[in-house]
Amino acid sequence: MAGQFTDLVNDLGYSKTFYPHSKVTAYLNGLASRIYLGIYRNKKEESSRIVRFWKTELPMVVRRYHREILYSFIIFFLFSVMAAFSAAHDETFVRGVLGDQYVDMTEDNIAKGDPFGVYKSEDQVSMFFYIATNNIEVSFMVFIAGFLVSIGTIWQLFHNAVMLGAFQYYFFAKGLGLQSILVIWIHGTLEISSIIIAGGAGLVLGNSVLFPGTRKRLDSLKRGGKDGLKLMIGLVPIFIMAAFLEGFVTRYSRMPVALSASILAGSLLFVIWYFVVYPIRLEKKSRPL
Fold it and tell me: Computed from CA positions of residues 58, 61, 63, 69, in that sequence, does the dihedral angle turn out positive or negative?
């Protein structure tokens, strides 16, 4: 078909030159259009485009904004530590952050000998869909809040970090620190990493408005929005995997320590490799010698 198309284009060019108003010219033009559409409609491009996005395009975007992702991590970590410190010096802080109902329910579960019973309160499928939806909603709120010149993203990071810091301190105060890490961070590793990266995407969006550089502010915003959205699309599978782990795996809080630690370590290594190490290596390979 490609060979016929080449010959046809040559004939069409000749016909347009010497017989521009001929019916043959119109016929050849229509025929060439149909063959052109046939070639490119059947072109198997979509699958390779998807592979290229995950293999090259997304990691290069991540690499371009490593600094913003690092800032997001630092902000989230500092707010979490501040929350844990506040909880250690104020007995009412945890209840103020997590709510009386949640704390009372958890204390009741601890008294029953099942401190992480909250993860068994619903069936797996319902819990999976609820958590996946919630994770996506929270992370996109962190990203979209970047429109408020990054301040909105920082506020969202503060809100989520305070909840995490108070939540984690609560279990340490009850003598369940190590157990909580082995259970909660099975899904928490991917979940919290996603929120931090979403925070980086929000800072990219906000900084594109604050610091347009040599570009027009609107052009800078378009670029920041496009790159930030790519980061968010890249997080969707991680949201889903985190929801799967929380809905189907975390409920087995009495699983062997080795298995729990392996899942946690595997999640952490994946995040570090795909979002830190691999983008740096890819950038070095792409540099001209």
Answer: negative
Q: What angle do CA 48, 42, 12 make, to 5 degrees?
A: 125
- Give the whole-angstrom CA distance, residue 129 versus residue 70: 30
Please state, in angstroms and rounded to a whole number, the distance separating the CA atoms of residues 193 and 47.
Answer: 27
Residue 263 and residue 246: Cα distance in Å, rounded?
12
Contacts of residue 201, defined as CB under 8 A and 6 or more positions apart, other chains included, come to 65, 68, 142, 143, 146, 227, 228, 229, 231, 232
The closest alpha carbon to 280, from 49, 51, 54, 65, belongs to 65
List phi, psi (to 5°) of 264.
Answer: -60, -50
Assess whether pLDDT exceeds 70 at residue 55.
yes
How many angstroms separate the Cα of 81 from the Cα of each of 64, 68, 70, 137?
28, 20, 16, 24
pLDDT, tens digit (0-9, with 9 covering 90-100), for 80-131: 999 999 999 998 999 999 999 999 999 998 998 888 888 887 788 888 998 9
How far apart CA 263 and CA 266 sit, in angstroms, is 5
pLDDT, residue 51, reads 86
Q: Is the dihedral of CA 213, 219, 223, 228 positive or negative?
A: positive
Does the pTM surpass 0.70? The reply is yes
Q: Which two tokens stand for residue 16?
A: 């347009």
Structure tokens that stand for 239 in this block: 């949201």
Q: Is 123 helix (H, G, I), strand (E, B) or coil?
A: coil
